[in-house]
Specification:
The complex is a heterodimer of chains A (380) and B (334). Chain A contains eight helices and 20 strands. By secondary structure, chain A is α+β, with helices and mostly antiparallel strands. Chain A has a six-stranded mixed β-sheet with strand order 6-7-8-3-9-10, with helices on both faces. With 334 residues, chain B is mainly α. Chain B contains 13 helices and no strands. In chain B, α3 runs parallel beside α7. Chain B is globular and about 75 Å long. Classes of the chains: A alpha+beta (380), B mainly alpha (334).
């Protein structure tokens, strides 16, 4: 099957000589409990790679394994082609931006940024020019003599970035870097992170639980759940072509329905849910041989059309067309979200762009329809 | 338009009861000078009552402790100050004229030696406690498993549960010429040492007495240490010993200062250990004070000036800490 954890290279640049980071069959247990298992991952040079998942999914453990704060129970970990599983953090060519920055409170901004370079015994002149350059890069040069306690959250974030970047790491690790910032500042810093990544050409590995952040910033995303990688792919692959029900559900909103395969031809498959709702979906190439008996379908709310009964606006020839009743209408600004109950009992969430039409009325009889290719089939 | 009827008002700022209809415009709260309902005398009297309350409350809270301090600390200290200004004051004799004679006596080389010795003992004990206590506190706070920490700490401060006198006597049995320590040395075919009534006995006894305080304070400081800061240091390339000198130690400086000050003050004023373990050759300020008040000489005037010298030394130590502590980048003291 394409895109399963084993086949992570599909979306990577084909010319990549060797990955910056490679995890092979990593297992990490805490007190006998596996925190991550069967971890296989490759991060290519220059990539912005995100580890995305709910809390407790093992994404932070994975990052800490790469940084060297944890050692894997089993498996191998390579950074720039060198085995690093047992190497202490201070000998690894990576630097971390910590979740709540972990700036040294007893040192000024300047001294914080110079910390790593001083340990490398750099000459005074080069030290000064590199610290200044790093501070300028994050626009913190006017604050060099301040102490962390005198800075706002966003400013501390910038110092933490400069402190890591000044060492010119092979890979920059970011642990929920924007988690502690308020929404507006977070959007701003997201843009700056993207710019920084583009201008430096550096490999970024970011841990986040914010799917929007991951989708907007990353070249590739690994979606994690319960210590395992569910899927690795580009943002659009993850969103448009989720491989598991978890990914479909975790990334964006979706309508998940389960059904028995009733009939199929070379192009389409017809499922029937337990309640008797028929759903047509595309036949996937990987099912050429045997078709699974049970399938799940994920239908994105924005791909479903609500119309007045009998109008069949837009999606004229789709077999996925059902009568329903509006249970709820929510005005979201750019969109209008509706809950439509089908006669079989299922409730579908539908997202309609706000097109200046009259708002549908609750309890109105409507029709919902969606294209065959928009009911995305998953192995149940 | 229905007028609000604030008959149920509780305080000056309580909201108007919802007697006004939904269509009525917002009505300003009636004030004492406003039309209609006059504010009660009670609410006019409130400010005055408040000032009274503002004074009474702290007095009630601070009274008992304040009285204690005034009667048992401030007044005796002032009395000491007066006595120290009467040269050669002895109980039962008519007091002489005021003068600085007692303080001039303190400049006698004999007393200067005693002061130097007291200072040496106090500083030495502080240094020993710091050197011995830091690794212990570090180990309990950072390295030991979480669930053992409280128990380990308890074990370490357990000696404080016995009286200092008892502990001093215990050390006598260990350090005396035919004591436990010399028996062990003899068993190893090593010559016995004159531990007791000597400087080593004082350092051993005082360090033993004050080590728990140092460990307790250092533990409290190290336990607050942000572990991610240690990880950040390692991440930036610092080996464990570099992390210790560049992050752990600077971060625990306030704790080190507080612990050292406490041990220094206690050691400077300690009487039991120097008296029981030190012997006649190691006279200290505290023993001298005892001698002047309760010993053979009974020179209360000189004793008072010695006491004030001790108080002054401790005050100086605290002042230095305050000044030094303010340099902390956090701006927070201790």
């Amino acid at each position: 099957m394409e895109q399963r954890p084993g086949a992570v290279l599909t979306a990577a640049p084909p010319t990549a000589p060797s990955p910056d980071i490679e995890l092979r069959d990593i297992l990490k247990t805490f007190a006998g409990e596996p925190a991550v298992q069967g971890l296989n991952l490759q991060v290519q040079p220059g990539e912005f790679f995100s580890l995305l998942g709910p809390s407790g999914c093992g994404k932070t453990t994975t990052l800490r394994l790469i940084a060297g704060f944890e050692t894997p129970t089993a498996g191998s970990l390579h950074i720039r082609g060198q085995e690093m599983a047992q190497v202490p953090p201070y000998r690894r060519p990576v630097n971390t931006v910590f979740q709540s920055y972990a700036l040294f409170r007893h040192l000024s901004v300047w001294e914080n940024v110079a910390f790593g370079l001083k340990l490398q015994r750099l000459g005074k002149g080069e030290l000064r020019s590199r610290v200044t350059a790093a501070l300028t890069q994050v626009k913190m040069d006017p604050f060099a003599q301040r102490f962390p306690a005198q800075l706002s959250g966003g400013q501390q974030q910038r110092v933490a970035l400069a402190r890591a970047l000044v060492n010119r790491p092979a890979v920059l690790l970011l642990d929920e870097p924007l988690g502690a910032l308020d929404l507006k500042l977070r959007k701003e810093m997201q843009l700056e992170l993207a710019n920084l990544h583009r201008s430096l050409g550096l490999t970024f590995v970011m841990v986040t639980h914010d799917q929007e952040e991951a989708l907007s910033l990353s070249d590739r995303i690994a979606v994690m759940n319960q210590g395992r990688i569910e899927q690795v792919g580009s943002p659009s692959q993850i969103y448009e072509n989720p491989q598991t029900a978890f990914v479909a559900d975790f990334i964006g909103d979706t309508n998940l329905l389960r059904g028995q395969v009733e009939q199929s031809d070379s192009a389409t498959v017809k499922l029937v849910t337990e309640t008797g709702l028929p759903i047509w979906t595309e036949r996937r190439s990987e099912w050429n041989g045997t078709l699974p008996q049970q399938l799940m379908v994920s239908i994105r709310p924005e791909r479903i059309l609500v119309s007045a009964p009998g109008q069949m606006a837009g999606i004229a020839r789709s077999p996925n067309c059902h009568a329903g009743r509006l249970k709820q209408v929510m005005y979201l600004g750019p969109n209008i979200q509706c809950q439509v109950q089908l006669p079989t009992g299922e409730e579908l969430t539908v997202l309609q762009p706000n097109g200046r039409e009259q708002l549908p009325v609750i309890d109105a009889e409507v029709e919902v329809s969606w294209q065959v290719q928009d009911s995305h089939a998953l192995v149940a | 338009m229905p007028q609000p009827k604030p008959t149920t008002n509780i305080g000056p700022s309580s909201p108007v009861p919802n007697s006004s209809g939904p269509s009525s415009p917002p009505t300003p709260l009636p004030t004492g000078s406003g039309p209609g309902f006059p504010r009660s005398r009670r609410s006019l009297g409130l400010p005055g009552w408040n000032t009274g309350k503002r004074l009474i409350q702290p007095l009630i809270l601070l009274g008992p402790a304040g009285l204690w301090l005034v009667v048992l600390l401030l007044l005796p200290t002032l009395l000491l100050l007066e006595l120290s200004l009467i040269p050669g004051f002895r109980l039962g004799q008519p007091p002489g004229a005021y003068g600085l004679g007692n303080y001039v006596t303190l400049l006698d080389p004999l007393y200067l030696t005693v002061m130097g010795r007291s200072l040496t003992y106090a500083l030495g004990t502080t240094a020993l406690c710091l050197v011995l206590g830091f690794p212990v506190a570090y180990w309990i706070a950072i390295l030991a498993p979480q669930r053992w920490r409280s128990l380990l700490l308890l074990g370490f401060i357990l000696p404080l549960w016995t009286s200092s006198l008892l502990r001093a006597y215990a050390w006598i049995t260990i350090l005396r010429p035919s004591g436990v320590l010399n028996s062990i040395l003899a068993g190893l075919h090593l010559p016995g040492q004159a531990w007791l009534n000597n400087t080593p006995a004082i350092f051993i006894g005082m360090t033993y007495s004050f080590l728990p305080y140092m460990v307790l304070i250092l533990y409290a400081s190290l336990e607050k240490l942000d572990r991610r800061m240690l990880e950040a240091a390692a991440d930036l390339g610092a080996q464990p010993h570099q992390t210790f000198w560049k992050v752990t130690l600077p971060q625990s400086l306030p704790g080190i200062a507080a612990g050292s000050l406490l041990v220094f003050i206690s050691a400077l004023g300690d009487f039991v250990v120097p008296d029981l373990l030190g012997g006649s050759s190691s006279m200290t300020l505290s023993r001298l004070v005892y001698q002047q008040f309760l010993g053979a000489t009974r020179n209360w005037g000189l004793g008072s000036s010695l006491s004030l010298l001790l108080i002054g030394a401790v005050g100086l130590a605290i002042a230095l800490l305050l000044k030094w502590g303010n340099r902390d980048s956090d701006g927070s003291l201790l």
